[in-house]
Design a protein that fits this description.
The protein is of the alpha/beta class. It contains 24 helices and 33 strands. Strand 28 (about 625-630), helix 20 and strand 29 (about 665-670) form a beta-alpha-beta unit. Helix 20 runs parallel beside helix 21 (about 675-685). The radius of gyration is 30 Å and the shape is globular. It binds adenosine-5'-diphosphate (ADP) and zinc ion (2 copies). Adenosine-5'-diphosphate binds near residues 264, 295, 300 and 620.
Length: about 800
């Protein structure tokens, strides 16, 4: 009886596809290569069965893994994510296993009948000048050839094949195959001996020499170093590895360890929190905790102890941290405590690095994993503890398909496998704090800073009053300037937060009121002084600063609003001798830039660090005694029910960077809304008061946590098409009754992005099930009507308005 298997493929369709299974043992969780239309795709086997479908099925081309890459629990988790977030299951599995780098895609060309005729006439038609063209046709005569091969022989192959394809001489298909890991450059590979000893096979002189060298120098060697010691080591090592006579593995970055400051004795509150987590671990069943600890209360130390306890019980542990907070310092802390049992998973790693870590984790060689969002899928055997640091952080939500929330997935995964999950924050999300009230999470609190250090003192400066008193619209109040001067004199450090990048936020004509906007998006362009350009923060479009107005020709073109670049410049003018660094998306292009600036600041190379919200995240820099918040109001005007929560979190977290060492901290907060509750409660560092007030508002307005929410975005380059889809969707959901509220569709707050028009619909229901049913209906309709896959975007539990 033939075997069939259902395979999930990375295509935007909400189903798995059935193929004929090969004779060998195929199991769910293995990746396979299949043909899909004209393409070859890598997919994941979800199910093996004997139910013959009604249509003719194709066989699987190739099985990519000798054993499943996903165990049953991870397969279930992936399917849960696909259902809950309305994401194509194939896309979910592609995100779950970072093994994409091991599959190579290539374009393969073959001659058509017309192409063959051309080739036969080529002596006549393709003269001397078109020689490369004739060469390509010749190369294709015996059979299909990959573009990469053609390119090696004919440099202009890409252009010519495209041209010939348009003329109908060639056809192309896309093929996926396995990438040969041995083709990586030598400085990326490690060589070790294998158990297998050479038998009768013939070895070259150089291969023999390499094996002899490895015999005399056991252990693991970098291939590029071997090349310096043994002639032709690169070629010999790869040839030997193909025959299994030695082992080659990709190199992964080493973790730098900080100096060991010994392990602190937990204070009573830390001890109590740790004891509760350990007791739960011993029960080996699901339990969720919210660890709410003020900034500087030593949450990390609780995590470290909890992880040790999990390891002692023979289980492994996973810690998620926000994207930007995974610094070498953080990684180093864990390496120091757990040595080479730690694996770090960062989205900035290369695909090969991530794949190698992933395999190590799967083999159970890394019992502690620290990583950003997608590390929640780390395939750890015996996972007993999941920790989510700064659980309120927005970077846990993926802003592209699948739009999952890393924290929520961590809780679901813990539930599935009977593990303990700990969510930590100084400013928990409303949802998580409410789950304590609902008795879903146990509450652990650290109410004081380590060593009775005081909380920072926050002073508000009302910028309206400042304007009345000084008569000028200055960026910095007098109090701010004085405070910075004092800190510079005392050789202490300051951080200044300005949560918007660029120099000025817009460029306006004083004569006619025209604002320079993006050609692709309905937003104004931001002025970036260093580049002397106006830049779109949505699509990257940029143009030169105009000398005269495009509308009226007047030369009264001026800049308004301030960003971090301008803060840096004005600070430098006010304090010419101060050493100032800036951290935002314009100065940080890679992980290295980030380390250089933050590490330099920590080491005292700078006096002042200016930056966007990047500077507010979790850093522990003892010499910072002043935090200046230049404009506390920026986030408050956003058309979003989470604006107050986000502002409260940012202000409280930023303030929390001050006074973490032996010296007390001071915070100066400039605002034009001193009475706004998000500002007021962050000044008092009073989370409980903020929570109570915000919760009342959410209850009244029926927002999360009192309702489930989904955004549905319709987009198209043709405005009428986007409008039409949104209208059809609204019609479809019009009779849902009182349990489902449909808001909109309306033009999205940013009505056009990257040339696409956008309409937004918001679905709200007190019952998750009702919401899911409505979304399922919408999706089925879109599929049936063959709306383009990018035409309708569903975002479940959205954090932003898209
Ligand atoms: P949080 O994440 O809660 O803001 P951290 O975990 O960064 O705080 O801890 C703040 C500082 O206190 C760190 O430098 C940490 O090493 C130190 N620390 C933590 N626990 C203790 C303790 N029990 N005794 C002394 N120092 C501690
Ligand atoms: Zn004008
Ligand atoms: Zn744009």
């Amino acid at each position: 009886m033939p075997n069939y298997c259902d395979v999930s493929l990375p295509v935007p369709l909400d189903k798995a596809f059935t193929y004929l299974a090969p004779h060998q043992e195929l199991a769910p969780g293995m990746r396979v290569l299949v043909s899909f239309g004209t393409r070859k795709l890598a997919g994941t086997v979800l199910r093996v069965h004997q139910e013959a479908p009604a249509y003719k099925v194709k066989p699987i081309e190739k099985v990519l893994d000798p054993e499943p890459v996903f165990d049953q629990k991870l397969l279930e988790l992936g399917i849960w994510i696909a259902r809950y977030y309305f994401a194509p299951v194939g896309e979910v599995f592609r995100v779950m296993a970072p093994l994409g780098g091991e599959v190579k895609r290539s374009k393969v060309f073959r001659l058509t009948a017309e192409g063959l005729r051309q080739l036969q006439q080529s002596a006549l038609d393709l003269g001397e000048e078109t020689e490369p063209g004739a060469q390509i046709l010749k190369l294709l005569e015996p059979g299909p050839v990959a573009l990469s091969v053609l390119q090696r022989k004919v440099p202009e192959a890409r252009k010519l094949t495209e041209e010939f394809r348009k003329r109908g001489w060639l056809e192309s298909t896309e093929e996926a195959g396995e990438r040969d890991p041995l083709r990586a450059p030598s400085n990326k590979l490690l060589v070790g001996s294998s158990e297998q000893t050479p038998g009768e096979e013939k070895l070259t002189k150089w291969e023999r020499e390499l094996l002899a060298y490895l015999h005399l120098h056991p252990g693991v060697h970098a291939l590029d170093e071997l090349e310096e010691k043994v002639k032709n080591a690169g070629t010999s090592a790869r040839a030997l590895a193909r025959r299994g006579l030695l082992k080659i593995t990709p190199k992964v970055g080493a973790i730098r360890q900080p100096e060991d400051r010994g392990r602190p004795v937990l204070n009573p509150q830390q001890q109590a929190a740790f004891a509760a987590i350990r007791t739960a671990l011993e029960k080996k069943q699901f339990e969720a905790f919210l660890l709410q600890g003020v900034t500087g209360s030593g949450k990390t130390e609780v995590y470290l102890n909890a992880i040790e306890a999990a390891l002692a019980l023979g289980r492994s542990a996973l810690l998620l941290v926000p994207e930007i907070a995974l610094t070498p310092q953080v990684a180093g802390q864990f390496a120091l405590r757990f040595g080479n049992q730690v694996a770090i998973l960062h989205s900035a790693f290369s695909e090969a690095e991530r794949a190698e870590y992933w395999r190590r984790i799967r083999r159970g060689e890394a019992k502690v994993v620290v990583g950003t969002r997608s590390a929640v899928f780390a395939p750890m055997p015996d996972l007993g503890l999941l920790l989510v640091d700064e659980e309120h952080d927005g970077s846990y939500k993926q802003e592209e398909t699948p739009r999952y929330h890393g924290r929520d997935v961590a809780v679901v995964r813990a539930q599935q496998i009977g593990a303990v999950v700990v969510l930590g924050s100084a400013t928990p999300s409303l949802e998580s704090r409410y789950n304590v009230e609902m008795r879903k999470y146990s509450h652990l609190r650290l109410t004081e800073r380590i060593a009775q250090r005081p909380m920072p003192v926050v002073e508000t400066v009302d910028m309206n009053q400042e304007f009345l008193a000084t008569g000028t619209h200055a960026l910095f109040s007098r109090r701010m300037v004085d405070a910075v001067r004092e800190k510079l004199a005392a050789k202490e450090q300051a951080m200044l937060l300005m949560n918007r990048r660029g120099f000025s936020s817009f460029c306006l004509c004083r004569s006619c009121g025209y604002r320079v906007g993006c050609v692709n998006c309905s937003v104004t362009l931001t002025y970036h002084k260093r580049d002397r350009r106006l830049l779109c923060h949505y699509c990257g479009y940029s143009e030169r600063v105009p000398e005269t107005c495009k509308e009226c020709g007047s030369d009264k073109v001026q800049f308004f609003g301030a960003g971090s670049e301008r803060i840096e410049e004005e600070l430098a003018e006010a304090f010419p001798t101060a050493r100032i660094a800036r951290m935002d998306r314009d100065t940080i292009h890679s992980k290295n830039d980030y380390e250089a600036i933050l590490g330099g600041f920590r080491d005292g190379q700078y006096d002042i660090l200016v930056g966007t919200q990047m500077i507010a995240k979790g850093h522990d820099i003892p010499n910072v005694t002043l935090v200046g918040i230049v404009n506390a109001d920026l986030g408050l005007s956003m058309p979003d029910f989470r604006a107050a929560e986000r502002t409260f979190q940012l202000l409280t977290q930023a303030s929390g960077r001050a006074g973490r060492g032996g010296l007390p901290g001071r915070v100066i907060l400039q605002t034009i809304n001193p009475e706004h509750y998000a500002v007021r409660f962050s000044v008092d560092q009073d989370y409980d008061a903020f929570y109570a007030k915000e919760l009342t508002f959410r209850r009244m307005m029926r927002y999360p946590p009192f309702a489930s929410l989904a955004n549905v975005l319709f987009r198209s380059e043709k405005q009428e098409e986007a409008l039409r889809m949104s209208g059809v969707a609204a019609e479809l959901l019009s009779n849902e009754g009182a349990e489902l509220r449909v808001l909109g569709p309306a033009e999205a707050p940013v009505a056009k992005v990257k040339k696409e028009f956008r309409y937004l619909m918001l679905l709200k229901s007190p019952q998750r099930k009702k919401l899911a049913e409505a979304l399922a209906r919408l999706r089925a309709h879109a599929e049936q009507e063959e709306w383009p896959a990018t035409g309708m975007i569903i975002d479940v539990d959205p954090l932003s308005l898209l």
